[in-house]
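Let us work through a complete example step by step.
Step 1: write down the sequence.
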Amino acid sequence: MSVETIEYNGKKYAEIIWGDTRVEETTFYSPAESSFQFGLLAHEAGFVEAPHYHKTITRTISDLQQMFVVQRGVVEVQLFSDDGRLIREITMNPGDAIVLIDGVHAIRVIEDMQCISVKQGPYMGEEFDKVFVEVDDDTGL
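Step 2: predict the structure and record it as C-alpha cells.
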C-alpha cells in the first residue's frame, strides 16, 4: 500500500507509511518547509555516512505534530473533522507509521501495543499540550 496522505476539506490530517513500503533510496514525504520531517532512509550494504552533527539553529514552530511507529500489537487511529465528525479510522499493525499533522485525533488499542512516539518538544504539560474535544457519539468513544 506504501504511503498514504489523508486530507479532508483542504486540510492535511495525516501521512502514513505502511509497514510494507520499500524504497530504493532515501525518500522524504513531508514538504521541506514542514516543521516535522517524515520519510524513509534507505542505503545499500556498505554505505557509510561520514561522522557529523547537526547545526544548532533557532526555529520557530507553531504547530505540534506527532508520529507513531507501531512496534507490536494493533492500534486504531481515528481522525475527526473540526466539527467532531469521524472522517477516518486507520488500523495500524507492527511496522506501520503515521504522522498526525493537523486536526482532532484519538487512538484505540485493539491488541496490547507498543509504539514509538515522537513529537516536538519541549513538553510543557498536558494543560498546554492537549485540548480535549467532544466528538460525534456515533464513534463509540
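Step 3: interpret the result. The chain has a mean pLDDT of 90.
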